Amino acid sequence: MSREFNQPMGGNEMPRFSGIASMFRLPVQTDAEGLDVAIIGVPLDIGTSNRNGTRYGPRQIRSESVLVRPYGMATGAAPFDSFQVADIGDVALNPYNLLKSIDLIESHYSACLAHDIIPVSIGGDHTITLPILRALARKHGPLAMVHVDAHADINDLMFGESIAHGTIFRRAIEEKLINPDKMVQIGLRATGYGADDFDWSRQQGVRVVTAEECWYRSLSPLMQEVRQMIGADTPAYLSFDIDGLDPSVAPGTGTPEPAGLTSSQGLEIIRGCHGLNLVGGDLVEVSPPYDTTGNTALLAANLVFEILCSLPGCKRR
CATH: 3.60.110.10, 3.40.50.300, 3.90.226.10, 3.40.800.10. Which one for 23-310? Predict the structure, then answer.
């Protein structure tokens, strides 16, 4: 007996500007029961160090996702014919307390992971990744990591605080949530406080691929190397900070940096994760107040779709 999967509402059933703005116009439910993939919003921005507004990211990405159709024409990927997917809403955070919000996120994801699901998250600032990794590592052990970002996020402290959006990958490595020998950071660039700003990652065994190494080239060969480095069996996580892309294509973010990755390179990275054992992924740092055209959120929605297409078991026509 074939299984019936949730399908996005089509543009001929309801005009795309109408109806409930769930992610990809999918059905909404309150928990992860019965799902293969749960889309979860985490509307946090009190971990940011520059421009805020990412608390509105999940809502705006959902709104723009109405334009995403159910098949990947280039890859032939059909995620909604492959998995039971639903939008399970947002984590209820404490907007006045970052550490309390971190605990709430970890608890929420632990409850979701009691079901056999892959969480795909929309942020929210990058701080959200740390509690998600804590919940996932408890289930899967230390994870391989593909991290797309303009920044390494390996500060030890920010204004004396050990947890903020710029410290999370140092904490994750220290807590052994990530295996640094199976981690790659792609797109790091711009200015820093010293010549060794990216060196802590390298010293732990992380492969660092700066934006300059990506200029004017396809990233498909790089991702082939990443797949070989990580392997097909190791549980892996993809964390995609929208500021890894150039502000010309993604201006709506809190800490933009010039000369970043192109949108097509972003697609190549995510599509290049197909073949990895992805157990989760996130798209973070979209700030709608700085996204006057909605193009950043629209691009983010398409990148989230590509994450679904790259999950293990996604059928390809």
Answer: 3.40.800.10
